[in-house]
User: Fold this.
Amino acid sequence: MNEEQKQKYKQKYDQAKQNGVKFWPDIIYKDLLVSFAFFILLIGLAAFVGVAIEPKADPSDSTYVPRPEWYFLFLFEFLKFVPGKIEWMGTFVLPVIGVLVLFALPFLDRNPLRHWKNRLTGVSIMGVVVLGMVGLTIRSVITTPKNEEGFVANTPAGKMILGGELYGIYCVECHGPDGEGGVIAGVEGMEGVELKPISSRDEMYTRSDETLGAIIEYGQQDLGMPPFGLAYGGELKKSELDAMVFFMRYTWDDRAELPADAASAGAIPNLAENEIPSYEVHISKIIQRYCISCHRPGKENNNYLMGTYQEILTTGDNAANNLLAGDMTSYLIQAINGESIFDESGEEIIQQMPPTKLMKEEYISIFENWVLNGMPETAADAEVLTVEVTAEE
Ligand code: HEC
Ligand code: HEC
Assistant:
């Protein structure tokens, strides 16, 4: 720029200054207004919308994929290109050099002209930096594996359902469907062992939630109670242990009162008058509480699996006789009525089911009603039958 140009530029600059507004207080005032508006907006969002929280941190859960906040993702992604041995280069030296370069930019590019076309050095360096950040962020989002969609129960109703299901799967075989204990039958290695109730007032009043959680997590191995926490060789995450303790507390502790909307969550539905039970609504729920603990993958028990509608009809050493539509001599019906099944040589092949203690009369009759009506799978299937039956009457 020669002297003449410089003068012209200075004049233009002075003129612009005359026409403009003052930084103090005009611009500062505007800034304040806008920041205040955002401040109010943030408070409003925090108060009325909030952020969904993730489940409690669980050091034993190795399936969790941790990631930094989105505005740090580019740095996180950048780090992946730096070999582990010189991590300090990626976490410290290179970022600091980058920031220093940006700081130095106005000194490197001392061109006084303001239009971007005249400032290619500055604009291109900044452009590369911005593009790099955006690109790395996108790459990081794309390459992040999805957190495993474990069901996380946050509401009381959700915890009751999850806790009840887990109790049904993992605990019923030894402790019974209502935590009543007693002499164990039908469990390999525990035959004849007598357990005290875990649902009693005594137990509930003397064990805090933390103690119960700890007992389930670590087990009581010298007494025969296996550990269930992931970190101790079991299969259950912290959030699942929590749900189970929640279920036990609110089902068995007479001092604990559930919010009304959660009170019936996960409970086995009653049969209405004239209603025909279905697998979907009634049978699967009864099985979840009384049978699944012993009849799931990994358990022998005559290879009888009770996880799905198909399984209860088609698995088991005696699959051909377990469930016969309309037939009260079906092995399953006999067994839940307390009768043993014998083979031709007179040897017992199936004992009463459940082996420790028969179910309530009410549930036994739901099973019978269901078999008599041809074992409908869904509520809709049962509905059709119900209509037919009522029409006949
Ligand atoms: C293989 C059988 C078995 C299974 C399965 C089992 N337990 Fe136990 N549990 C025991 C035995 C044995 C004890 C020792 C206490 C006793 O002898 O009464 C025990 C003790 C306990 C106690 C402590 C009683 C006390 O206060 O001393 C609790 C609570 C308990 N179990 C809960 C559970 C829960 C919840 C589950 C399911 C996640 C479960 N147990 C699964 C066998 C089992
Ligand atoms: C404590 C464990 C336990 C529970 C709980 C349990 N079972 Fe069993 N079940 C067994 C064992 C063990 C066998 C193998 C036969 C035997 O030893 O009697 C068996 C076998 C059966 C069989 C025969 C399968 C075949 O093809 O031979 C049927 C049917 C059955 N159970 C139904 C039920 C039903 C229905 C429930 C729930 C109401 C239930 N069981 C709950 C342990 C259990």
In short: Residues 170-171, 173-175, 190, 195-196, 198, 203, 207, 212, 215-216, 220, 223-226, 228, 244 surround heme C (ligand 1) (CB under 6 Å). The two ends are 105 Å apart (CA to CA). The mean pLDDT is 90. The CA atoms of residues 56 and 134 lie 31 Å apart.
